[in-house]
Design brief:
alpha+beta, Glutaredoxin, 4-stranded mixed sheet, 4 strands
Length: 85
Amino acid sequence: MKVIVIGSHLCPDTLFALNQLKAKDIDFDFLNLSASFPALKAFLNARETEPAYDAVKVAGGIGIPFFELEDGTKTFDLKLVLSKA
């Protein structure tokens, strides 16, 4: 299963998640919002359209890393991603 990870190389949680995915040999694409305008656009689109971001915005958070799985699952939960991959 391929995973899309939206995050930033500046974010410790994103770096941890990427290392966990690598350790489990999970195929992923990393959209680094800090280094790429297309990745930033993907992040902003997800943040504005995904209901999962509602609570993040209320809490004043950023909401990364964000995971999109091939089966349509969209989550912030790394454990869920690791269990499905």
